[in-house]
Amino acid sequence: MDIPEMGWGGNVGCNHAGLVEEGKFVFNLMKYSYGIYPEQQHFSCIIDLLGRAGLLGEAEELLQQAPGGGIYGVAGNMLNDNFNILEELENLDIDEEDVEPFEIPSWTSERGGKVLVNVDSFGAVGDGVSDDTEAFRKAWDTACSTPKSVFLVPPGRSYLVNATKFKGPCADRLVVQIDGTIVAPAEPENWDPNLPRLWLDFSKLQGVAFQGNGVIDGSGSKWWASSCKKNKTNPCRGAPTALTIESSSSIKVKGLTIQNSQQMNFVISKSESVRVYGVQVSCPGDSPNTDGIHISGSTNVVLQDCKIGTGDDCVSIVNGSSAIKMKRIYCGPGHGVSIGSLGKDNSTGIVSKVVLDTAFLRETTNGVRIKTWQGGSGYVRGVRFENVRMEDVANPIIIDQFYCDSPKACQNQTSAVQISQIMYRNISGTTKSKEAMKFACSDTVPCSNIVLSNVNLERKDGTTAETYCNSAQGFNYGVVHPSADCLSSHDKAPILINQVENAEHIEPSKDHIVHTEL
């Protein structure tokens, strides 16, 4: 056997074994020890090996040196695919431009030519005991029908308000100014049976601004105590969401505090062009199903400078949502920042174009998570988590396609939500879990094109952190610790982007599901 054939055989062996350094040694041996310039097949094999290992810079350099100026076949196609995926994920962004169609004045200093509609003027008492629901409804009807009006909840008072729907459409340039405290009835038995899942529900609005230094307090402690997650002898049932904005567009929410929600704190549903700034969410870490900000069936949503501590996901993004950006998010306690859950009861779930840029998570049960049930269909595609710092977090990076939040075991199924083109970049911190990164993907619908760049996760106790992969394919560049070589294994190589592209025609389920307690 001559030298080129020996080099080819050595390269092939190293490629199939995933032996990167050994493959590079054999390749260089031909050039520098035997003076034989590698041929097309040698370049193809080593570039394939480097590409699978995520060493894209080295692979690209060799690609340019190859005879004919390029590589044909699997190696070149794979490398080009990787660069295309990288370019798409790195350029993925959502416009943060302010959506408000008018300037909002500061009500401590000026009215700005607006009509002030004070709930006190409609009979609200504000002692935290008297029922002010009817006064709020009357004030809303007036503010909603009056151009350039301000629905004012004044500071220094506490208003007891029962479940209420504040419906639009409204006259132009409405501001909801909450400077006081709005509290919910504490007793679940006293809740309006016609609105079992809602407390303060705003719908069919356009160009409305919610702002102020006030508090929305769900008085949720008795709801939590009656939860089947707190006590398995209790029946499982739904509970109200503190603040809901649905079927609305061009909405701004700024500065409010939402706390002690009965279940979810703040839901954005079936809406578009929503901007949320400086909102705080606060619930005990053991309060069940109290998601901080839950986005469902919505597009073009930006969350910025929000501090969230709760008993469930700090942020959850579910079916029918796209173009979602989170920036400068503090999370803890809570279950992390999650996409999902999706695919429950064999439903279709679609989420795309999600960016988390700059976050700090402390002592959460998950970090950045994608969760889907077995069964179902649809996809999660085009997601970038970057510039995230974690402190004492369990499961810092996790894809869980075997999610089961049910009293009974969930059966493994052949269908699943397809997950692809997910980037984790500049992620660092400490993990409680031995498995700092976990990619538990569907056996029959594997995850594809997972990209890791500059990841450094250490065990808090100093022991070695690990990465777990099941049916997951991707590549790394830059420093990645712990190693994620399992993403590059050859048995996962045939997973192609086309599998996801073929799902493009799938329509999301029309039902925008919010938490149903299990």
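The above is record 1. Record 2 follows with the same two-line structure.
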Amino acid sequence: MLLFSSVPTLHYPGSAAAAAAPSLSLFPSSSPYHSSSVSLQQAPWHRVMEVSPSSTAYQLRMKSIPKGLRIRCSAVEPLKVMISGAPASGKGTQCELIVQKFGLIHISTGDLLRAEVSGGTEIGNKAKEFMNAGKLVPDEIVTAMVTGRLSRQDTKEKGWLLDGYPRSASQAESLEKLNIRPDIYIVLNVPDEVLIDRCVGRRLDPVTGKIYHIKNFPPGSEEIKARLTVRPDDTEEKSVLSFISSEQYQSQPLTLYDSPSKCRWMETDRKM
């Protein structure tokens, strides 16, 4: 992307600014180059135009730049965020807020796994074998799913929010080798006693899939209350084991991301 101070700014095709701008041609309709149209967006301090670097329009435009004009290269990249935390730490709530505010693509490994398995894909079938055997899905399978999702056009344009991944140093290193790294790594820090209270009090509405809490977020009607169920993994014993495992996993990626400029610790111990 080429930025011109106080004069037209050229953006390569596909940029967010160019996508939002109306179409305009640099040449009159009689010109053979009329079809080489560009995008124009008016702003108080500059104009934004989009042309292809290989097009004749671009070549002619560059020739018209006054001598001595300073040009600097710049690129506006979409936001990339990773979020980590133990079960019941509030990842779901925080992810909703982040997506609403920044318009990022929310990517959850759990959702990806379910989609791959239900779709009967090659990766899904491999993952299903481990899941049916009660084993953890290997890193290489999960990483393949995540990198495949991150390569789609919507994440390139809007940015992404990676939920609960990477969970280990090896997963983080796999992403690092592919030059996939976050701008911000968020860790939700909640005391163990609060996490356990949240889990053992959680109830699932099997009809809507909505999660309630018997003390902090009860349902609004007796009809809903009567059909609530306890999730199998929300017993106190399983919750404690899950927190221990989660704490061990989430601390590992911090070896790569734990820096004042990148990592953000959030206290989320308020009652839900």
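Residues 1-55, 65-74, 236-246 have pLDDT under 50 and may be disordered.
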